[in-house]
């Protein structure tokens, strides 16, 4: 399979703190990859680094043969990778369509941006609420509008940062069905979610971070059975739930 994104030996230091330590992995077209790890493991830093909000201290990030590390977020978006923003991405005073139009304006004039926005809303089953105010939406609708905004940038790699955080299990299942269908159409999703059930059900592959380093990578079943991951993360979650 052709590699879409290649992350090679990426290290990020904030002063003396090593937030990411020599991280390497690839993402392929049409897969959903989860990123897990305890609080402070470096998940947000990795997402921010991928989209150009944080510059790596060392390493290379390559999309289809072109280096994107050191580029700014709007340039990275033009290479096809964008990220949702945890809880803060939507403009509450604007309606759903305009929230998505704003994202599409990064590459289009207004008329094209409106068409792109309407197509994304239609694709995600949100056409009927295009004129609704964001403040009036349910949590699952908000989650899908965030995904629509990311899609409207024409990204092929969507980094989803806890878009399902506020959802109940049934709502999560509905959003996961939509995400799976986007994957089946060829989009690549890289997902941070604290709900382990969602991560395990949704992802084709999972990467586990601890103290800024990748400690494991594998299918959900492999990750769930990995003693290092259980010790670092799942064990704590299980003991929290108990
Ligand atoms: N801008 C920054 N300046 C200094 N230190 C930072 C900065 N951003 C993150 N860090 C530190 O880097 C480490 C990794 O943080 P990060 O937020 O990436 O972890 P995380 O896995 O996303 O955690 P959480 O699950 O709590 O969101 C932490 O020790 C954090 O305090």
Automatic annotation (TrEMBL):
GO terms for cellular component: plasma membrane. InterPro entries: AAA+_ATPase (IPR003593), ABC_AA/LPS_Transport (IPR051120), ABC_transporter-like_ATP-bd (IPR003439), BCA_ABC_TP_C (IPR032823), P-loop_NTPase (IPR027417). It comes from Acidovorax soli. SUPFAM superfamilies: P-loop containing nucleoside triphosphate hydrolases. This is Branched-chain amino acid transport system ATP-binding protein. GO terms for molecular function: ATP binding; ATP hydrolysis activity. It comes from the Bacteria. The keyword Lipoprotein does not apply. Keywords: ATP-binding, Cell membrane, Membrane, Nucleotide-binding, Transport. The keyword ATP-binding applies. Residues 5-236 form the ABC transporter domain. PROSITE patterns: ABC_TRANSPORTER_2. CDD domains: ABC_Mj1267_LivG_branched (cd03219).
